[in-house]
Write a structure and sequence with these properties.
By secondary structure, this protein is mainly alpha-helical. It has 19 helices and six strands. Helices cover 54% and strands 4% of the residues. β5 and β6 form a beta hairpin. The protein starts with a helix and ends in an 8-residue tail after the last helix.
């Protein structure tokens, strides 16, 4: 056994990264038909639900596998009768039974940190859904093996580096080697799956890992984005905001439906028509629905695209069973996906200065009437002064993550592949952006909670329940003290605000 394989085989489940905010739970398996999987379904898979093929899917795949073999016997098929990349013009002996395994072994080259198990499960479910759609011509034994891998939670070891937005070849080749018994799995894998040359490239020909990471990021962001409504409503209450910024008229003027929804939700949280403290507020509150509507719009757009790609066969070549031919194409080039991820990163980045604005307002006596930085009034007391620095640091990280990955390009494989979408790098940036966004909102939550408690501001009935619950999990300490535990506690509480599970945080 090779040394690195020996190390991986002894890499325990407890040592491998896990999405800490998503505990594994028992859920009924998700039924896979090749269409219709939602982000909610994929979240259940991440938590350990597993997935099973719907009745009739395997019969269809068996029939299409036979047809694909007949098509391959009549015409050259990239990756089966030829090499790949720069070797695309090299013919492969039709009796070479090792060609498929050689492809998998050579392409299973990745690096970097391990992908969390929750994300690996989603990757497997996405690939299962894509293969259940018509087009791959893959062996049904491979599809059944993938289904079994999810059922037994026998997960491959996947690393983050290896893709450039033109199919996650390394991740899926690594998965295939684990299915073939050549790489370790997290649970026993007693029955290896055989990969012939008719199934090796089709199995790899997908961006399932990038889609899985995007699905996980959007699912996490949905909770945070929803919670931002409550945090902003608390801030608005603390500084006596002019509620006209959230009026139906303001929502209509914003044009995009998402902004109108954000305005409506803000009105539901604030409820009363308190006399505003000023004729109009800084942009942190006055432009909240416009900026946040753009975030919601970009997030929903990316979510819909991920769901569509999860239900689409994009293998190259793609077997068209109606015309009875193999179609060679560039569907693996995830330009739209990369642009959608970049768009969400940019939307988050443009919303960040407004979070900073609200934090600044909460710390300014001109807006709250409290001592500077919500200190306890002791001479020279700093209060929340330093949390502004943390928020600014997080904003800088968020803006750095918003540099469009889709502007990159590269020439590889002796010029055979002269561009890439870099969607994989965009989703890496999205993970970092969501982390930074959570930190910024946690700081705002901490300061808004402190301001309302110090000032005794009356709140709406909806916010009253939130404020009461916050006092239980985020007790107020008036004097200067170590703020790290407070910031960490706010970060744990934040995702559950929108779901009303504050006490479980």
């Amino acid at each position: 056994m090779r040394e690195h394989e020996q190390h991986d085989r002894h890499h325990s489940r407890s040592d491998r990264p896990r999405d800490a905010h998503q505990p594994v739970q028992a859920e009924p398996p998700i039924e896979v038909v090749g269409a219709g999987l939602t982000l909610t379904d994929l979240d259940k898979v991440a938590r350990g639900a597993g997935a099973r093929l719907a009745p009739g899917v395997l019969d269809r795949l068996r029939r299409q596998y036979r047809e694909a073999r007949e098509i391959s016997a009549r015409q050259p098929v990239y990756g089966q009768s030829t090499g790949v990349g720069a070797n695309r013009f090299v013919e492969v002996d039709e009796h070479d039974d090792e060609h498929g395994l050689r492809l998998l072994r050579s392409h299973a080259a990745d690096a970097g940190p391990h992908v969390p198990e929750e994300t690996v499960r989603v990757m497997l479910a996405i690939r299962l859904s894509q293969l259940a759609a018509s087009g791959s011509g893959i062996s049904p034994d491979v599809v059944q093996g993938l289904e079994r891998m999810l059922r037994d939670d026998a997960l491959p070891s996947i690393r983050t580096m290896g893709g450039i937005g033109t199919a996650d070849l390394a991740a899926l080749a690594s998965t295939a080697l684990a299915m073939a018994g050549e790489r370790p799995t997290t649970n026993p894998w007693p029955t290896p799956v055989s990969f012939g040359k008719d199934s090796a490239l089709p199995f790899m020909s997908s961006s399932a890992l990038t889609l899985a990471r995007a699905a996980r990021a959007v699912t996490r962001l949905r909770d945070l984005e929803g919670s931002s409504r409550i945090v902003t409503a608390l801030s608005a209450t603390a500084v006596g905001a002019n509620r006209q910024a959230f009026s139906p008229q303001a929502g209509r003027a914003a044009v995009i439906p998402a902004a109108a929804r954000v305005a409506e939700e803000m009105r539901g949280l604030l409820q009363d028509e308190s006399e505003p403290a000023r004729i109009q507020d800084p942009f942190g509150l006055r432009a909240y629905i416009q900026a946040q509507g753009a975030v919601v719009d970009a997030m929903d757009r990316l979510g819909r695209l991920v769901e569509s790609l999860t239900a689409t066969a994009q293998e190259n070549p793609l077997f068209d069973f109606e015309s009875q031919r193999a179609v060679h194409h560039g569907g693996f080039h995830q330009a739209s996906l990369g642009l959608a991820i970049d768009g969400l990163n940019l939307a988050l980045a443009q919303s960040a200065p407004l979070v900073i604005s609200r934090i600044t307002m909460l710390h300014d006596p001109a807006y709250t009437g409290a001592p500077p930085f919500l200190a306890d009034g002791t001479d020279g007391s700093s209060g929340h002064m330093m949390v502004e620095y943390i928020a600014a640091s997080a904003m800088a990280q968020l803006r750095n993550a918003a540099q469009p990955a889709s502007l990159n390009t590269v020439v590889l494989s002796q010029g055979a592949e002269e561009d890439a979408s870099f969607a994989t790098q965009a989703v890496e940036q999205l993970d970092r952006a969501v982390d930074s966004y959570q930190t910024m909102l946690s700081i705002e939550l901490l300061s808004a909670h402190r301001a309302i408690s110090m000032l005794g501001r009356p709140t709406s009935s909806s916010l009253h329940r939130v404020a009461a619950s916050l006092r239980e999990v985020l007790p107020i300490v008036a004097s200067d003290h170590d703020l790290r535990p407070d910031i960490e506690a706010a970060g744990r509480v934040l995702p559950g605000l929108a779901r009303g599970v504050l006490r479980e945080a």
